[in-house]
Task: structure prediction
Amino acid sequence: MAEHVQHHGVAGHSSVDDQYLETPPGSTYEHTDAHVGPMIKFAMWLVISAVIVYVGMAAMYWLLVRESTEPAGAQRYPLAVTGRLPAEPRLQQFPGNELYEFRMKEEAELHSYGWVDKNAGTVRIPIEDAMRLMLERNALITRPVDTAKPPEPVDMFPSDSSSGRVLEKRRQ
Result:
């Protein structure tokens, strides 16, 4: 029998799992179930610690609120009293509105006449008018094409430092 206990670890059973096959006589529950006492103790300690943490957090919040109240004579924004602005760059108060106004100003400049530099005589004209004038005056400057000789072939090789992203022209 001692050999049987050493081999399987449980006296009177041929396998370790045999003890789970039947409930001992006179018992109303399985002895392999978890014990209720330690679970109740754990739940009670959990509730007690939760209450302690809650009370501690409430006390800390109350302390921070009490400390954050300013004295009656203190200004909330001291720079507002002096009229000084903080150093650049400052935050935009309404970035969406400022971007809209900026784009509307650009659109107005693109589609209107105006002086760029009155002393130099430089003016601004709408884009549509500028394109129409360029076509009317044939003012598009192009490079003269030499039809006598064909263009030279250009090989494209990646440079050593580009990792192949930018191609470099090399003439033969």
